[in-house]
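Sharing a chain and its predicted structure for anyone who wants a worked example. Both blocks are below, sequence first, tokens second.
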Amino acid sequence: MDQTLPIAPPKKQPLPAGRPREWYVTHNRRLKAMRLAITLLDSGVYLPNQAHNRTIRSAAQRVGIHPPSDITCHMVRAFMRYNR
């Protein structure tokens, strides 16, 4: 299996101003969880019960993403569960 890194992300655009801080935190957490879920799927982890926190954090390290929190790891598994 070829372990190449995913293609470069699209150019970032500024987020809309005026939202509460929690909105930005949640938005960025969802984006991070989605990127990690895609990385796991590309690496052959297809089921949420295969995606332990340790597995998710090692995938984040492999692609250069800051290690996710427990909440973000939970969101990764939720994305994998609901997108089946």
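Comments welcome. Residues 50 and 74 are 12 Å apart (CA to CA).
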